[in-house]
Amino acid sequence: MIMCKEATRLMSLRIEQPLTFQQKTQLAIHLSMCGACRRCDKQFRFLHDSFNRHPSQLGDTNKK
User: pTM (2 decimals)?
Assistant: First the structure.
C-alpha cells in the first residue's frame, strides 16, 4: 500500500496526465482508507475545476 505522500503525488500527477492502471488502483485503495487524503483529493479537484472554469479572471497578477 502507498503512503500519503505518494498518494498526494499521484493526485497531483493525475491532473497533468493519465495514471497507469496500477497507479489508479493504488490511489483508489489508499483513498478508500484515508480520510485526510480524501479531503486533499477533494481540494485538488475543487482547485482544478475552479481554475478551468474561470481562466479569464486569472490574468496578469503583476498589473496594478
Answer: 0.77
